[in-house]
Amino acid sequence: MLSLLSLFAVITAVDDPEYLDREERSLTQAISAKSALGDVVVIGNERTRLSVIRRELGLESGDMIDCRDLAAFEQRLFNLEVFSVVTMRCVPGSVPNAVDLEVTVDERWTLVGVPVVASSDNGFRVGAFVLESNFLGTLSRVGAGAFYSPQGTQAFSIYQNPSFIAEKGLLELRARFFDGPKTRFDFDEELQAFDDQFFQVDALVGYAFGQSVFNQGLNLYVGGFVSDGSAGDVTGDMRDGVAVEPTLTRDLQWGPLLALRLGQQAFELFAARRLRAGFTL
User: Fold this and answer.
1) What does the alpha-carbon distance between residue 256 and residue 242 come to, in Å, rounded to a whole number?
2) DSSP class per residue in 46-107
3) Which pTM value belongs to this model?
4) 167 three-state secondary structure
5) CA-to-CA distance for 167 and 177, rounded, in angstroms?
6) Under a CB-based contact definition with an 8 Å cutoff, are residues 99 and 37 in contact?
7) Residues 119/125, Cβ–Cβ less than 8 Å
8) What is the pLDDT of residues 80-102, one digit of tens each?
């Protein structure tokens, strides 16, 4: 009989709203102040890798966090520009005397394609480009595009990896191509018409002084470039009264490249070494 009465008392206490409120307040107070972090639990990351989110949060097991103020950590993930929703809360931890950080995210659609159609007094321009800003869930960027106009065809591609070396080591690869007609004039007299082709490849490694994400904070790059193009130099139509065939010069250049980026602003310096080789048109 006493056992039944005791069981009835426990059931009554659990059903009592005031009892539940006291228990909930006690649990909330326990995890609302600064607490040791047990683990980071992420919900909703279908494409973005868990290791990437943990890296950008910059938290390790055992770190002290203030569960009442998680806005700074939420902003870090918003800055990645791959999440439309980021919410965080502390929950009872899987480790004794610690709390887990529960992160809920909703991912954006990061593949963007844009057609381009433009016209001006010099003619028209059509083309398109595509950009994926969360390639393979690593926050890497891959982009490519091509444009056509009567002045020539242009194409470009780019690859950016924000964690190529360790956590803040950056890698950037770029390629550009141009093919189109060009004409050289001496005052109003046409001297030479030729098909100009230009190709350049840049390779850069860098370090992120702020958050390891593009367009955030200060990034410093060093690297090099190689370019090859037709300079279209004319040696002269006449030399000492004798007709001379014009020559088209291949202009191969290479050298170091230094880039400094602060947010959306970019500054690049390069020093080129040149190898020129001429051939007859």
Assistant:
1) 42
2) SSS-HHHHHHHHT--TT-EEETT--HHHHHHHHTTTSEEEEEEEEEE-SSTT-EEEEEEEEE
3) 0.71
4) coil
5) 32
6) yes
7) yes
8) 889 999 999 999 887 788 899 99
